[in-house]
Amino acid sequence: GEEHYNCISALHKSMRGSDENASLYWLARMLEGGEDPLYVARRLVRFASEDIGLADPLALTQAVAAYQGCHFIGMPECEVILAQCVVYFARAPKSIEVYRAYSNVKECLRMHTGPLPPVPLHLRNAPTRLMKDLGYGKGYKYNPMYKEPVEQDYLPQELKGTDFFKERKT
């Protein structure tokens, strides 16, 4: 029932707050109460990107490994795998930079009126002669062929200069 959601919320908030003791408590309370370890592992995968993100990119690897370990061996042996992951997450630095930026992109798409801007011609693939003749791919600079970074726009003209990492939703 509701306690299922209360406990997972307490686990998330304890990890987010870097309280490794409380994190272990809520994990154990869930597992000892019969919670599906794969449910917990799936939530840890989300937490790795949503709450830790780029502050520790290996967190996602830890979460996926924990999920796979739980899938392979099940309970009760997988409890220590989840415990290790939960403590890792509680101790990890936190960043919601990507989470916020992606939310800003979604908001931009939702608020857009009319048809979405077309993909710029230089970014379009040109698998046919007709597409090449229409200018698809023309002027595209293939970055790996350059020693220095290349100047090239990747957003549609209407969004030029937009930085979703700096934009704030109102």
From TrEMBL:
<dbReference type="Pfam" id="PF12002">
    <property type="entry name" value="MgsA_C"/>
</dbReference>
<feature type="domain" description="MgsA AAA+ ATPase C-terminal">
    <location>
        <begin position="17"/>
        <end position="168"/>
    </location>
</feature>
<keyword id="KW-0547">Nucleotide-binding</keyword>
<dbReference type="GO" id="GO:0003677">
    <property type="term" value="F:DNA binding"/>
</dbReference>
<dbReference type="GO" id="GO:0006261">
    <property type="term" value="P:DNA-templated DNA replication"/>
</dbReference>
<keyword id="KW-0067">ATP-binding</keyword>
<dbReference type="InterPro" id="IPR051314">
    <property type="entry name" value="AAA_ATPase_RarA/MGS1/WRNIP1"/>
</dbReference>
<dbReference type="GO" id="GO:0005524">
    <property type="term" value="F:ATP binding"/>
</dbReference>
<dbReference type="InterPro" id="IPR021886">
    <property type="entry name" value="MgsA_C"/>
</dbReference>
<dbReference type="GO" id="GO:0008047">
    <property type="term" value="F:enzyme activator activity"/>
</dbReference>
<dbReference type="InterPro" id="IPR008921">
    <property type="entry name" value="DNA_pol3_clamp-load_cplx_C"/>
</dbReference>
<dbReference type="GO" id="GO:0000731">
    <property type="term" value="P:DNA synthesis involved in DNA repair"/>
</dbReference>
<dbReference type="GO" id="GO:0017116">
    <property type="term" value="F:single-stranded DNA helicase activity"/>
</dbReference>
<dbReference type="GO" id="GO:0005634">
    <property type="term" value="C:nucleus"/>
</dbReference>
<protein>
    <submittedName>
        <fullName>WRIP1 ATPase</fullName>
    </submittedName>
</protein>
